Amino acid sequence: MLGGHLVNPNPVVHPVTPRDAGSVAPDVAAAALVGLSAAGRAPGSAALTDASGIVTATEVFEFIRDIKDPEHPFTLEQLRIVRPENVYVLDRGVASGGPARADGTPAPASEVVRSGGPGDDGHCYIRVEFTPTVPHCSLATLIGLCLRKRLERSLGRPIKLDINVTPGSHQTEHNINKQINDKERVAAAFENPSLHPIVEDCIRDSDY
Amino acid sequence: MSVELLDTLMGHEDRVWHAAWSACGRWLATCGGDRTIRIWAPLIPRPRTVTQMVDGVMTKQVHEAPPPSLERWSCVARLKTHLHQRTVRAVAWRHCGRFLVSVAFDASMVLWQRTSDTSNEWTPVIEIEQEGHGAEIKSVAWSPDGSFLATCSRDKRVIVWAFCENPLELEIASDLYGHGQDVKHVAWVDLPAEGESSQCLVSSSYDDTIMVWRLRGDDFECTGVLKGHKSTVWATAALSGSRIASVSDDLSLRIWEPAPSQDLGSPFISKQTISQAHSRPIYSVSHCALPAAIPLDAFVARHAPGQVPPADVVRLGPAIDAAAVGTLAAADDPPQHEGEDVVMGDAGDTGPVAEAPGPASAIIGLVATGAGDNAVGLFAEMDNGTVVPLRRHGRAHSLELNSVAFRPLLRPDLAARIPGLVDPQQVVLATASDDGTIRIWRVSL
């Protein structure tokens, strides 16, 4: 946890979405992360992806909902920093996630893939939007790093990940978005001896 | 045309950020997250001694070693120093391989010297730690005449160091402020100008611009700011005729050419934009000048219409068949194909644009790009100054490409003077990736 002055001393804590019947129990998750199955995927997560191993938005949300907020002993889900409808996935042409649509169809590829890509080139594209608790939140970049580290570690396949603040939720959202998606800046941040332990601490307990 | 994988170089223990060839093309230096620098060259096979019974007598026969080939490389040196405590981000050779500089994320810089001309042992001879940059150093480049070294950093500065060999010194000559953000890359381009040195320094930045610097008196000064890219400019490369290619987070490859007159207020103007050259940020660009231009009709004749590329090689450019000859020739009507967006002098740019080019009649060079979509892009540099997409080679690596570098292609008479240069007339491309490997490719037109 960060010591000293809190940016947001009074966060609003929300009840969480009940977990899926197929979601992973804590002790199984712990075992899974220590020794991934031969397919490179945590056992027990099979219920969250379909049989072909296509990554889904539900699976991605499962990995990020329990990341701890850097300032408070609550999860990103409890603080509504991440919500299931803010996760978009396009894996090998199969789209999932985004807000529930009236006709039940998933979000189109164009909402997931940053731009230009055909979306069916075999890559797993993921886009996560998150909402910092207050517009002045200086911890937005830190949350972005935690989300990235958690997902890059957890999914058994390489991913093309874009993380954005929810439009309208931050006064310098373009600046934040650019920083947290700049590969070189992210690599340097992860190497930074002051940032590294904070990120590890926030994502550690979400491994149970 | 074909792009053939020759070898995959393994050894680095983390992502490889950068690959650079010595000026003679004999050696490839790479560096990355494992904080080391590795030097690679084609493996030199050794003669084999075979002992066998011949007519009741034990005889030894020495089998001559086969000549080294581009298909088998080995790591000839591994450079490690306690000074680089974090990722080594870039390396640069001075001329033909006696001096090498490495720069790192902890703002440290090391000048290495080869201990003798025949060995591959290196010693750090200058170590810079507290001086110069105050944040991650992102790129390093020697001026063509070897007298200056440019570096750039997240501290928003470009620093030009003056190099002296005897006594051995590397001293700050110019400390250049100008970019509003993190500077990602520095490169030199030869741009002749009346009464001035033709060596021009080009810096690319997170602030979406490219700045041009020139030595005036004792100091480097900014002579122009190139605007047009919509996001971070990751790298530039010098093309033929003092042109520049730049690549960006905005997914485009842009070509800039020297301004026809000083009145335009900028030393370079926008010539061409290839949007959607890749589907993820483009991190690197490299140029290769062909020793002899390839006439367009000869190139087209070599490629039968309807040639089907392998499944993971997506052709972006005009189909190389007889029907395209007319389109390539009429360059004021650029070929349009699905997924491709080739614009001459992008009207959306802020800044002066070049006039429409005349028709192209020959391929004078190649341009390669490496991007976050794991692909290599290949483009033909035409004699009319335009660049035409040839091919996007997808899945060049299993993860993102950080660096692409063509081996320098020397004139045959110069190449003959360099011992140990293997197949000097072949176009060879090195690519470095997050997957921890470097790949060596042969490009044939």
Automatic annotation (TrEMBL), chain A:
It comes from the Eukaryota. Keywords: Chromosome partition. Belongs to the MIP18 family. This is MIP18 family-like domain-containing protein. GO terms for biological process: chromosome segregation; protein maturation. Transmembrane segments: none annotated. Residues 97-116 are annotated as: Disordered.
Automatic annotation (TrEMBL), chain B:
WD repeats lie at residues 9-40, 81-113, 130-161, 423-445. Essential component of the cytosolic iron-sulfur (Fe/S) protein assembly machinery. Required for the maturation of extramitochondrial Fe/S proteins. SMART domains: WD40. HAMAP family: ciao1. The keyword Electron transport does not apply. Pfam families: WD40. Belongs to the WD repeat CIA1 family. This is Probable cytosolic iron-sulfur protein assembly protein CIAO1 homolog. Keywords: Repeat, WD repeat. SUPFAM superfamilies: WD40 repeat-like. The keyword Repeat applies. GO terms for biological process: iron-sulfur cluster assembly. One of its GO terms (cellular component) is cytosolic [4Fe-4S] assembly targeting complex. It comes from Fonticula alba.
